[in-house]
Amino acid sequence: MANTDPLPIVPIDAAESEAVWPLSIEAGWNQNLADWRFMLGAGRGFGLRNADGTWEASSLVLPLGQKLAWISMVLVTKGRRRGGVGTGLLKRCIAEVQDGGAVAGLDATEQGRPIYLPLGFRDLYTIKRWHFDNAQDVASSVVVRPFTMADLPRLALYDRPLSGMERPTLLAHLAMRRPDLAWVVDAPGGRLAGFTLGREGRMASSIGPVVADNEEIGLALLGKAASSVAGPFIIDVPETHARVRQYLEAQGAVSPRGYMRMTLGTSKGLDDPGHVFALAGPELG
Ligand SMILES: CC(C)(COP(=O)(O)OP(=O)(O)OC[C@H]1O[C@@H](n2cnc3c(N)ncnc32)[C@H](O)[C@@H]1OP(=O)(O)O)[C@@H](O)C(=O)NCCC(=O)NCCS
What we know:
Blueprint: E1 10-12, H1 17-26, H2 33-42, E2 44-49, E3 55-63, E4 68-76, H3 85-99, E5 103-108, H4 113-116, E6 122-132, E7 145-146, H5 152-163, H6 168-177, E8 183-186, E9 192-199, E10 205-212, H7 215-228, E11 233-238, H8 242-250, E12 254-264, E13 276-278
Parallel strand pairs: 4-5, 10-11
Antiparallel strand pairs: 1-2, 2-3, 3-4, 5-12, 6-11, 6-12, 7-8, 8-9, 9-10, 10-13
Coenzyme A binds at residues 27, 74-76, 81-87, 108-109, 111-112, 114-115.
């Protein structure tokens, strides 16, 4: 029987990470405790909590600079669905973003999109989620080298115009969390030509973001990351990148689902996946 006792929307503190994690496990998602701790620490969570301290629903706003914020982790336990909880949480998140003068972005699942459309979100582009176990490196003349902490300031500067996101905290977090998935390509004159980062997850390691000057460099970075450590892997790739798709298919990757990148308002650069070969993840931007 569906549980319909009314519960108020309350903030989710980072200390609640372990208590709220079962929501994403129930949905079959890949986030681990480190993900929840990062997201609730760097962002603001809102949810529904029972008197016994268990959580019925969650949602999250992750600032990506002054002008953009990512809404994610909109999760309602199965017994509570179709009662308006998801819509209520989303409205709370939208108010939080708009009060701060920012534009809201998100990557919608098939289940989430019907809620976002009536609230004014519009489609930007489609993304495919790929699963694969192991990968061969890409045959390429592109020189890929390991990331070092000295690269971090340049990384954030390089990323910003190409991804449309200002996310130095997230990039630093990922680089420190999984240095073995962090690789860069140098361009002449001391600038970067691309980078990839990643993180471990509950079921698979996640590769991304992959941001690069062009598809050849993006592919070389992806191949290096995926062939350097053991899988299984997941990666979220904008559908427009046909060569990345061909490479993934050649590695035996399968894509059971996808996402729609959506926005409420306009945010410069967010609608162009030309240099974004993999997302940080639908929950991170
Ligand atoms: C998506 C989710 C958060 C929706 O939560 P919810 O509390 O059921 O949402 P609401 O009750 O506010 O639904 C609002 C409207 O969205 C539409 N909707 C919601 N779920 C739907 C579904 N499975 N199929 C079609 N329409 C759906 C309906 O129009 C619904 O209104 P109605 O029930 O009056 O017809 C919930 O299904 C969930 O946790 N899913 C798994 C995780 C997920 O995919 N999250 C979204 C990430 S982008």
